[in-house]
Specification:
6 helices; alpha+beta; 152 residues
């Protein structure tokens, strides 16, 4: 009897593990997931949000995640995207907060920065992740001066 119970239990585990393979593509189930968020085609182009500082010549100076939210990159991305998704008013509010942080920290790499800009760029996803930042389109949501610095 114990042997039969062991075989039945083992068969149940094998069936539960194989079950997701027979679901339609994109179907997801807890606790055994097919991870459709990684397997579905998202297209080659996507919009990427960014917070930048600009100097008087318009040169883009990247801002560390800590200027947007904290030192955690994913939390900064979430904070930025939430503001951009809520519209220009929320974007301007975040932009002003970032500009104050830039002024308060006096980072030498941002000494020439006069403006903070929140934007989304349409990029080739694969090329972007490989380091090629050529944008196919750009939407500026907010642009605000850094207090105490003269913008052109």
């Amino acid at each position: 009897m114990e042997t039969l119970r062991a075989y039945l239990l083992g068969g149940l585990f094998v069936a539960a593990t194989a079950y997701p393979a027979f679901l339609p593509p994109g179907e997801d189930s807890y606790p055994l997931s097919t991870y459709p968020m990684f397997s579905r085609d998202r297209g080659k182009r996507s919009w990427v949000g960014s917070a930048l500082a600009l100097d008087r010549q318009g040169t883009e100076l990247p801002l560390a995640p800590s200027y947007v939210a904290n030192s955690e990159a994913m939390q900064a991305v979430k904070t930025l995207n939430t503001a951009l998704n809520r519209g220009r008013k929320a974007a301007r509010k975040l932009c002003a907060a970032i500009a104050l942080r830039v002024r308060e920290r006096a980072d030498p790499q941002l000494a020439s920065a006069v403006v903070v800009q929140l934007q989304r760029q349409r990029v080739d996803s694969v090329a972007f992740l490989a380091g090629h930042r050529d944008a196919r389109g750009r939407k500026v949501f907010a642009r605000c001066p850094i207090p105490g610095r003269k913008a052109p």
